[in-house]
Design brief:
With 432 residues, the protein is an alpha+beta fold. The protein is built from 14 helices and 15 strands. It has a 6-stranded antiparallel sheet with strand order 5-4-3-8-7-6, with helices on both faces. Strands 10-12-13-15-14 form a 5-stranded mixed sheet. Strand 1 and strand 2 form a beta hairpin. Helix 1 packs antiparallel against helix 2, helix 8 runs antiparallel to helix 10 and helix 11 packs across helix 12. It is elongated, with a radius of gyration of 28 Å. Bound molecules: adenosine-5'-diphosphate. The site of adenosine-5'-diphosphate has 20 residues, from helix 12 and helix 14.
Length: 432
Amino acid sequence: MSIPGGRSSHDVTAVQTAARVIELVRDLGECADSRQVLVTAGRHYRQLFGDFNVAALLLEIDRPGHWMALALESPYTPSWGGIAHHQLPKMTDIDEIVKRLGKDVSERLVTDPVLRPRLVDAHDPHWCCDNLVAVRLTALLGSPCRSYMVIPWRRPQDPDGWLLLGYSESRVIGDDALDLFATVGQVTSRLSMYPALVNYIARTEKVNLSLRRNLVHDLKTPLTVIHGYAETLVHEEVIEDKEMRAECVAGIIDSCDRLLGDLKDILEPMQSDWRPQYAEFNVSTLIQRVVQAERHTERSQHHKVTMEGTDIPLMVEGDPRKFRRVLENMLSNAVKYSPGSGKTVHVSLTHDNLAFTVAVKDEGIGMNEIQLARVMNDAGRVVDEELGIEGSGFGLESVRLVVEAHKGHLTAKSAPGRGSTFSVTMPRHRPV
Ligand code: ADP
């Protein structure tokens, strides 16, 4: 068929498709975070490839053979149990989203005789319809689909993966459609890196700033002590008094050791190759010590700090120095974010054979759902500046890093004006 101007309908379709791809590139370029990339790409794919039932990412995360699947819910059909777009956190990286929200399908995928050659061993785009592959993919992703288009999801330096579109009806997918999907999928995977990079840089800057603030704060006390001893040392009567001199020098050495220890505690957990220094310790005693120390601080003078479950010894394996920091952080936050007087902060210890949980409950300002999600996922502060509560927004991030390095997890509940409870659950024994 010809249309005025001499263009065939085929040309018109090609021009329209090209225009849509350009629009996709432009829209993806404007995305500020990974969630927007996934939502925007999904919207364009729907225009280009018709109404799919599921869009899914299947990525090999962390180590070879460890596959995670993230099935995205279609905004047009009732949920089949995937992740809805609005549930996607604004994380810096799509891999991170898949890692946190995806389902671990490693064993099923790696041992599956039908899917393995298609998804683990091969790297070429393909499609399937009403055959065993489609049935297995449906089972793997949990979405009722009869046909799929599958293309590689590749980014420089990142592990391999697949991007899938699944349709509830049988479809024969032409080579042109598969080629086009491979191209726009590749564009999407590349462009999805940019918001991640920008956010990464912003986050690094933020961490950098908080680190400097933390360092200044942590260095001030021991440096003041060292300064005091040094000043005393230059007095003539001290120079002549051997015992006093020895005391001052011992004080300086002690403060220097503490300083070096503090520096290590702050910096180490941020290094990707950091591993906890495991030792056996009594977590009940550790909590008692941290609570005692907190009760003596100025900020706790108008608060009551209570304990429960710490009167019997509980031996656990972990890094006691770093765990102490975790407790100090949770406890100081609980007091700090409960301005006023007469408030109680309650620390409880519970355990079973495998794990123990320390929960720190306060009656402070609390947070709404969105604020809580932000501090738990994005690292940062959500506190109203007018309250004048100082902080770096980095403490909780370092708590999470330490807890996760022990294969434990950090959880929190909170309600505005009614307080928060932060809990860490850790294995009692060193994971093998
Ligand atoms: P800070 O910002 O004081 O250094 P963190 O980095 O430990 O604190 O925590 C990150 C943010 O989480 C805080 O800035 C605050 O907004 C919120 N937060 C942490 N603990 C509490 C709490 N117990 N109550 C209310 N908000 C809290």
